[in-house]
Amino acid sequence: MSNNDEDRNKKQKVEDKTLAGRERGALVELQKSNYDIFLTRDCLAYSKIKPSVNQIETHPYFQRDSLVKFCQKHGICVTAHTPLGGAIANTEWFGSVSCLDDPVIKALAKKYNKTVAQIVLRWGIQRDPVVIPKTSKIERLYENYQVFDFTISDQDMDKMKGIDRNYRTNQPAKFWGMDLYA
Ligand SMILES: NC(=O)c1ccc[n+]([C@@H]2O[C@H](COP(=O)([O-])OP(=O)(O)OC[C@H]3O[C@@H](n4cnc5c(N)ncnc54)[C@H](OP(=O)(O)O)[C@@H]3O)[C@@H](O)[C@H]2O)c1
């Protein structure tokens, strides 16, 4: 049996169990994480249960417009993990460049009288995805909620498009020695 056949058999077994679970009322939704376009297309082709959510890294430096639009077209809700680009945490962990230092976003923050993080989160919400920022600080938790009282203009949304770097800030390969996202 080839590796591909084995993979397919494993997927079939998971699918059978999942379907059985759904029939028993144990499963409500199928959600997936870090699926790129090819994996998502694959999943849509073989899975009898259409995934409802794809949780992916996306932020101003990693916009992934094609993947976001592909998911939206197929009715899959995109959840943006790492929506602040991981901020200082990913800089410390992985040496990543933070979008919170970006001059274009800083200028917009000034213009809208908001913080840089609020601009980044508002931009994320206006693209449609659900955003799930994380903070260990109560004042930032409050700050991160104050994003529903303003709208970024279409012109400024276009400006944000221009700063995409196709740049992943979660880079666990630096510790694990293998690239999960290859
Ligand atoms: N599915 C997956 O593979 C996957 C991968 C990664 C992450 N996630 C999930 O995505 C969520 C967020 O991910 P994340 O923590 O990696 O990224 P993030 O939310 O983009 O960034 C978190 C960092 O931003 C800082 N921060 C939060 N609010 C801020 C603000 N207003 N101004 C400046 N800095 C701010 C936090 O520091 P302080 O704590 O000091 O405020 C922390 O260093 C988590 O629930 C995580 O579990 C999922």
UniProtKB/TrEMBL annotation:
Positions the record marks as coiled coil are: none
Q: Which residues does the UniProt record annotate as the domain NADP-dependent oxidoreductase?
A: 25-164
Against Gene3D superfamilies, the record matches this protein to: NADP-dependent oxidoreductase domain
What Pfam families does the record tag this protein with? Aldo_ket_red
Q: Any idea which UniProt keywords this protein has? A: NADP, Oxidoreductase
Task: Write out the GO MF terms.
Answer: oxidoreductase activity, acting on the CH-OH group of donors, NAD or NADP as acceptor
Family per UniProt? Belongs to the aldo/keto reductase family.
What's the protein here called? Putative NADP-dependent D-sorbitol-6-phosphate dehydrogenase
**Organism this protein belongs to:** Cocos nucifera (Coconut palm)
